[in-house]
Amino acid sequence: MVRLVLVLGDQLTPDVAALRAADKACDLVVMAEVMGEGTSVPHHPQKIALILSAMRKFAAGLLAEGWQVAYSLLDDPENSQTISGELLRRAAEFGAGEVLATKPGEWRVLRDLEALPLPVQVLADDRFLCSEAEFAVWAEGRKQLRMEWFYREMRRKTGLLMDGDQPAGGQWNFDHENRKAAKADLLRPRPRDFAPDAVVEEVLDLVEARFSHFGRLRPFRWATDRAGALAALAEFIGDRLPRFGEEQDAMLEGEPFLSHAVISPYLNLGLLGPMEVCRAVEDAWKAGKVPIAAAEGFVRQVLGWREYVRGIWVLTGPSYLERNALGHSRALPAVYWGGETGMACMKAAVGQTRDLAYAHHIQRLMVTGNFALLAGVDPAAVHEWYLSVYVDAFEWVEAPNTLGMSQFADGGLLGSKPYVSSGAYIDRMSDHCGGCQYRVKEKVGEGACPFNLLYWHFLDRHRERFKANPRMGQMYRVWDGMDGGHREAVLAGAERVLARLEAGAVV
Ligand code: SF4
């Protein structure tokens, strides 16, 4: 009997588990563009266009290699507009009695597959460098799941950037060298824009007609196949990797990419593999083309952080999405959907997100994430926003980053303290504050930077939880050492900001 081999839009790897296990001679590959996925959250139009374009090209490649493919176009009148519906339709059409799938990166999709009235075999997604079982063994019995220890084990296991059993360059981590502010007058090679071809143009018209979500669709700059993804990787390594490390936390107006790789969408779709990108970076270091701090900083993101958050997502299961350790409940402010704001840093991060479906990790963590956390926004709403607006956001990677690292909603499983800061950090790492309506040096009053006000309000309202945290004691000592009248003025200012957010007024 024919088996249906499901390939999802982020499983575009020729040797993904379900394809490896399938028989080209008799099984049928099922790929489906469905509104159910495009609208499960209001995904950015560029993200939808990237996935649909890449799916169409990947399906064409499978056909060329002799696979039988049943591909559902979004505007096919027969399309049931859900993955389950399309599997059932194809099962009836082709007399198929079984589904072979690779584990999806979203619990909702897995739940739907498991509810199908057909036998479904879900295979482990072995495109990751750490298997689910390996991560479970590593996590077993540990009080705190520290990424740094996991990363060192992964370095040892893979031999990446290792010199025998010692880390190359004599250190495991060069992070302290990678926190420099960026110089505005430095010329940086911008990542190449991939001009849309006929396939992409057709998809762009389709997305324009069917989706009205937040975000600009054009200009569309993404590569949509493996050849393009490889070109983007090579260009990053040649042009921007040498400065990737030192500039990785910096933010500059009008410089959305700085020295970042901007290959996460390709990795997360399956167009690139994690080991091949790490090896390519290691090779560049071995050839003397990039410093160890840059190579190590990059490898840590992919081999360390990416694998680690995936492990956390698997380990904690679907209930992780509901965590809200700090009891935050505010609605997501309108500024996140492009509403007016006087905060230059937020305007830059959200504006860039609207235009490019991309922002780098410090913009996500220390600007939009920091503000949501300080303002006490419901973490589920923050999670939905990040999952929607970023071209590289898939639940397995986005949820631990947002709920764990950014919003502390997991109560400290990922991070030993919340990532909060006043405006001083943003001022140090960016050039936003000079052009802001607020003044970063002001601690109280109408003109004070909202991050300054909300920072102390956050610490004050969560004192019971954090006062004994050794990494936060110093901040409480600073707060407690301030004059009582000053403290009251700060809290009153923060309350004013929160009231404005509550009322939907511009902040
Ligand atoms: Fe952002 Fe505050 Fe700086 Fe304005 S002053 S850009 S709100 S950190």
CATH architecture tag of the largest domain: Orthogonal Bundle
Shape: globular
Q: Termini, distance in Å? A: 62 Å
Q: Percent range for helical residues?
A: 40-55%
Q: How many beta-strand runs?
A: 7
- CATH topology term of the largest domain: DNA Cyclobutane Dipyrimidine Photolyase, subunit A, domain 3
Number of helices: 21
Largest sheet: 5 strands, parallel
- Ligands bound to this protein structure: iron/sulfur cluster
Q: Beta fraction of the residues?
A: 5-15%
Going by CATH, the homologous superfamily of the largest domain would be DNA Cyclobutane Dipyrimidine Photolyase, subunit A, domain 3
Structural class: mainly alpha
Rg on CA atoms, Å: 23 Å
Order of SSEs: EHEHHEHEHEHHEEHHHHHHHHHHHHHH
Q: Stretches where pLDDT falls below 50 for ≥5 residues?
A: none
Reading off the top of the CATH hierarchy, the class of the largest domain is best stated as Mainly Alpha
The neighbouring-strand order within the major sheet is 3-2-1-4-5
Could you tell me the mean pLDDT? 96
The overall number of domains is 3
